Structure formats: structure tokens, C-alpha cells
Amino acid sequence: MLSLLLLSFEETLLMVGVSGLLGALLGVPLGIILYLSARDGVLPNLALNHILGFVINAIRSTPFIILLVAVIPFTRLLVGSSIGTLAAIVPLTIAAAPFVARLVEVALREVDAGLIEAAQAMGASTRQIICKVLLPEAWPGIIAGLTVTLVSLVGYSAMAGAIGGGGLGDVGIRYGYQRFLPEVMLAVVGILVVFVQLVQSGGDWLVRRLSHK
Fold first, then answer.
1. What domains can you pick out in the chain, each with its CATH number?
2. Residue with more model confidence, 180 or 141
3. pTM reported for the whole predicted model
4. CA distances from 140 to 4, 35, 36 (A)
């Protein structure tokens, strides 16, 4: 059972890590676009902002268990199967990206508008404003948002495991619930709690380091 728990934890770590990374790679640019294209943004484009915002809100408002089922054809197209750890990464990434996008948008909105105006007055390009003003100032908030996303993905990964995604959720359902082994369920919950605590503590530490100016 110990080896099974270790293998399942590795699968959970893979699901959360890869989907978190892919979600950040997709979500951070989306969040920047949302911020830039807003009415008071650097490059206002209300049509783009509203369309992108609608799509992001639609995905965020969809319960994850429904999203898992809805993207099965797309998952099969990408990885050739709708069952397993790799297959679970697809809906996890789709769920993570819009979440990250909104958190990044919020973090960018907290940047002092005076810094942006000063950069524009000095003739900085949009790319320079993003890379040298917005992102450096917003990094603590962005890292905090990514930490929250990773913690959420831990719970989502357990839900994915319940329908064949592997990981600790699969072990908890198959052994803890279906075979009436409460000690296995407690072990799964304990591992997830410790994992979440480590992720949150690591994220908080990184935020504090980045906040020291």
C-alpha cells in the first residue's frame, strides 16, 4: 500500500506540476491582454476585452466535473485517451489558465498608475512597459495567484482521479471508499494536506522574497 501511495503521489505531482506550468504559460499572457485591452488600459480594445473576458468567465463558471466530461473529445485528440494521468492534465490546464488570467489581471491593476504614466512620458514602448514596469511590480501578486492556483489544482486532481485520472484521488476512491478501507482514505487526505501546506508555504516565502525592494 505504501508503494501504491507513493506512485499515486507522483502521479498527482505530475498532474499538478504540468497543468500548473501550462496554465501559467497560457494564463499570464491572457491576464496581460485583459489588462492592456481594458477601457483604462495601455492599449484599450473593448471588443477584444469583452470577448476574451466572456470566454474566460464561461470556463471559470463551469464546474470542473462537467468540464472533465465536456473536453473528453479534445483530450482524446491531444493524448489519444480520456483516461490516465496525461489525459487529466488537459482539463486541469483548461481549468487553470482562466483562473490564472484573472489573478494576473488583478495583480497588474494593483500596480501604481503613476509608474506607467511616467514610463509612457519617457517614450517607453508597450513591450518595455510590460517587461520593465508592470511585471516587476506585479510579480509578488502574480506568484501569490499562481500559488492559489496550484492549491486549487490539488483538489481538482483528486476529482480527476475519481473518474480515472489516476493519482491520490483514484486511490482514495478505489481503496478508501469502494473497498471500505478508511485508513487509506485518511492517508490520502493526510498526504494532500501536507502537500498543500508545502505549496502554500513555498509560495508565501517566494512572495516575501520578491516583495523585498
1. 2-211 (1.10.3720.10)
2. 141
3. 0.89
4. 37, 17, 19
